[in-house]
Design goal:
Histidine-containing Protein, Chain: A, single chain, about 190 residues, alpha/beta, 3-stranded mixed beta sheet, 7 helices
């Protein structure tokens, strides 16, 4: 009985302090991680690697926080975004490679420094559309894929359960209006 009273007090204090969205967000994240085929321990390791990379990049150059997107799956890192020069792209890659636990790095940064707000908005919308289409496909386990779109280039990073699922994902990307080019970093598990 005492446990229920403590649980009730804790719940009430969390609701009063506005922490319910935080708890719900944490629960949703935990459910999302648990539904992936990479496993919880691997997902947590990937989150740690991504956090270290983002921290080091921000220390190097604060603009990397918004210019560079980092995706980590099983220690493999995909770098997407737009930087000002090839030199900056190499700096970003060097930072990523210096983080413990990184296995392989895929540097897909655009180096012309030009990424207008209109293009960013179109890319964000396109990535959302692709994710929605993937979610609706019964033959694709959408939680196993990360999608980033930069300048109309669609980057997909993840793990297919079968070769036919891999082909279904690539076909979906190729046939989505607005996708200029598909860059697939998918492995069959």
């Amino acid at each position: 009985m005492r446990h229920y009273v403590l649980l009730g007090l804790l719940s009430t204090s969390l609701m009063a302090s506005g922490c319910v969205p935080l708890l719900l967000g944490g629960a949703a994240t935990a459910g999302y991680i648990a539904s992936q085929d990479r496993g919880t321990e691997t997902a947590i390791s990937d989150i740690k690697i991504k956090t270290y990379i983002k921290d080091k990049l921000t220390q190097q150059h604060y603009q990397y926080l918004t210019q560079v997107e980092i995706t980590v799956l099983r220690g493999n890192v995909l770098i997407t975004g737009v930087v000002s020069s090839s030199k900056q792209a190499l700096e970003v890659e060097a930072v990523v490679q210096s983080v413990q636990g990184v296995q392989q790095v895929y540097n897909e940064l655009f180096t012309d420094g030009y990424y207008p707000a209109k293009q960013y908005t179109q890319d964000t919308w396109l990535a959302t559309e692709i994710k929605s289409l993937m979610f609706a496909e019964k033959d694709i386990k959408s939680v196993n894929y990360n999608i980033h779109v930069v300048n109309g280039h669609a980057y997909v990073f993840g793990y297919a359960r079968t070769a036919s699922e891999l082909e279904a994902v690539k076909y979906l990307l190729r046939t989505t209006k607005g996708v200029k080019q598909v860059h697939s970093f998918i492995r069959v598990i």
